[in-house]
Amino acid sequence: MPDHAQLCFRALADPTRRDILKMLSQQDMTIADVAGRFDMTRAAVKKHLTVLSDGGLITVEPRGRERINSINPLGFGPVLSWFDYFDGFWDDRLSDLKTAIEKDKT
Fold this sequence. Notes:
There is one protein chain. By secondary structure, this protein is an alpha+beta fold. It has helices at 4-12, 15-26, 31-35, 42-54, 77-105, and strands at residues 29-30, 58-63, 66-71. It has a three-stranded antiparallel sheet with strand order 1-3-2.
């Protein structure tokens, strides 16, 4: 089974899924609501929503016969952690470069 970060990145890899996330950041939506905004079948939209749910980026809540899709801000944690690591990596490298340049100037 892939780790959570891998599932997040897989979900984010597709531009349609990124568009769906933008829409869900504005409001919760049913599958039909999402499908109405794309030129694809409802089944195709459901597959995209399943990948987003598997990645922990959205939650799906049954309400009667409908399933309400909502963005899950906490689901982005693994992606943010990954970027934080490289943010620190580049901070260290750039600091070392700055030190080396300043040393060469003297």
